[in-house]
Design a protein that fits this description.
- This protein is α+β, with helices and mostly antiparallel strands.
- It folds into four domains: 7-182, no CATH class; 200-259, no CATH class; 268-297, no CATH class; 324-433, no CATH class.
- Helix content is 41%, strand content 15%.
- The chain is built from 14 helices and 15 strands.
- The protein has helices at residues 12-43, 51-54, 77-85, 89-104, 107-114, 120-129, 135-145, 155-169, 171-183, 206-226, 236-249, 290-297, 324-333, 373-381, and strands spanning 62-63, 73-74, 186-189, 200-203, 268-273, 276-282, 286-289, 350-353, 368-371, 385-390, 393-397, 403-407, 410-414, 422-426, 429-433.
- The strands form six sheets. It has a four-stranded antiparallel beta sheet with strand order 10-11-12-13, with no helix packed on it. Strands 5-6-7 form a three-stranded antiparallel beta sheet. The chain has a two-stranded antiparallel sheet with strand order 1-2.
- Helix 10 crosses helix 11 (236-249).
- It is globular.
- It starts with 11 loop residues before the first helix and ends in a 10-residue tail after the last strand.
- The relative contact order is 0.06.
Length: 443
């Protein structure tokens, strides 16, 4: 039993004991979360769907989340579970799939997980890697990795072990994946970089990659010989990046690349205030300083300055179709998916009428909410309610009475008892959220 003494008053041994107890509590909670996800899947089996209703466009259907041999689950179940645990519907669907597979396809691993001998993260990794296998093949991997899944080998070695056993269990499938991978060639910019830097990934067979590597290395070596004093080519990495750029543009070593590079459009949003340093946000990248814009974009870019868009002054239109100016206003005000804990920030998301147009909802700012297609379907055909008391402020309620507030800062679970009015205070301006008494309650 961990002492209730304040951490500041604990000895070093007591602090270590306290940390160990916290870690054990977290591990136990991960197991319990898997158990809860499995029970949620059981409660939301495909049998609870009306076949006639499920066949209509956009309605909820059954989805196979786990591997072969696992029962399908109702499609919208992951949205409610995800919101309650603070995760996206996609992440909740993966949790359900892992829980189902561990129970039915990887029973040896699950036994050790329940006993506290294997971390849930190790077991979930095996579940994900064996999802395409047939039950007998998954059982082979289960037996082959269960002994080593308790952390006795480093994570990288465990990953390699699982990959090898999956290939041994289903060699034909492994070969099929190799053939599919051979066709999945691409060259694209990656997301998720920071501090003004980015990456461009070329994904192809290793022979081609080795050839590209050799050409870049040769061109970089030539730059070192011909331009030894160039200030922007003083390191091998700088020369290799420049060599790659020369190769893709077909330019000579001393060519002014600004004359050859194509025009690209970047959306740079500037923010300024009296109490903080000026900052900018580059769409698809993130926050940067104005100094970065001056130093990196300034020497080459041409800027088109657009006036601030008056979000509140966008006049509604008497039509279901959404004008482009409204879409731009919604994207600036609400750049992310408005479903609780959703993550998409794509400009191609659907823009939903919070109050349906057919029910009198206006086509105007304050009645719009960007969502992916799946979340739009959950909102339209699932058992959720949503209101937008202020433009860009969304209050969601699931069928069990839990409330969620979504705005430009993210999602927060709100206090409130089921079937009771909810009062929310924003900027010291309270407002009421009404509950539709005719809305079907949970069974």
């Amino acid at each position: 039993m961990v002492s209730s003494v304040a951490l500041e008053e604990m000895s070093e041994d007591e602090v270590l004991d306290f940390a160990g107890a916290c870690a054990e509590t977290a591990r136990r909670a991960e197991v319990d979360l898997l158990r809860a996800a499995y029970q949620w899947a059981v409660a939301h089996c495909a049998d609870r769907l009306d076949p006639a209703e499920a066949g209509r466009p956009g309605r909820e259907r059954a989805r196979q989340l786990g591997g072969p041999g696992v029962e399908p689950v109702t499609e919208f179940a992951a949205a409610e579970l995800g919101a309650r645990i603070g995760r996206s519907p996609y992440a909740a669907a993966q949790l359900i799939a892992d829980a189902q597979d561990l129970r039915h396809r990887l029973p040896q691993l699950w036994t050790r997980v329940e006993a506290g001998e294997v971390r849930a993260s190790y077991a979930r990794h095996v579940a994900a890697k064996t999802r395409d296998l047939q039950p007998i093949e998954a059982a082979y991997v289960d037996s082959a990795v269960v002994e080593s899944a308790d952390g006795r080998i480093p994570w990288s070695r465990f990953e390699a072990l699982v990959e090898a056993k999956v290939a041994q269990a289903a060699p034909a499938l492994a070969r099929e994946k190799e053939e599919r991978a051979a066709q999945a060639r691409f060259a694209k910019k990656l997301r998720g970089e920071a501090h003004g830097m980015g990456s461009f990934l070329v994904h192809t067979d290793i022979a081609t990659i080795d050839a590209i590597e050799a050409v870049v290395a040769k061109r970089a070596a030539r730059l070192a010989e011909t331009m030894p004093d160039a200030p922007h080519l003083q390191t091998d990495d700088e020369r290799r990046v420049h060599a790659f750029l020369l190769l893709v543009t077909g330019a000579g070593d001393d060519t002014d690349l600004a004359e050859l590079l194509p025009s690209v459009t970047m959306f740079v949003h500037t923010y300024a205030g009296p109490d903080r340093e000026d900052a900018v946000r580059v769409e698809g990248h993130g926050p940067l300083t104005e100094a970065w814009v001056r130093q990196v974009l300034g020497p080459h870019a041409r800027f088109t300055i657009q006036p601030v868009l008056d979000l509140a002054g966008q006049a509604p239109v008497d039509a279901y179709e959404i004008p482009d100016r409204h879409r731009q206003a919604v994207h600036l005000m609400t750049p992310a998916d408005t479903f609780p804990f959703a993550s998409s920030t794509s400009r191609s998301m659907q823009v939903d009428h919070t109050i349906p147009h057919a029910q009198g909802g206006i086509s105007g700012v304050g009645n719009y909410g960007p969502m992916t297609l799946r979340h739009h379907r959950v909102k339209t055909h699932g058992r959720w309610q949503v209101q937008q008391p202020f433009p860009g402020i969304y209050i969601w309620r699931d069928q069990y009475g839990a409330f969620y507030l979504v705005d430009h800062t993210g999602t927060r679970r709100l206090p409130g008892a089921p079937q009771q009015p909810l009062v929310v205070e924003l900027w010291r301006t309270p407002f009421d959220v009404d509950i539709d008494d005719d809305y079907p309650d949970a069974a």
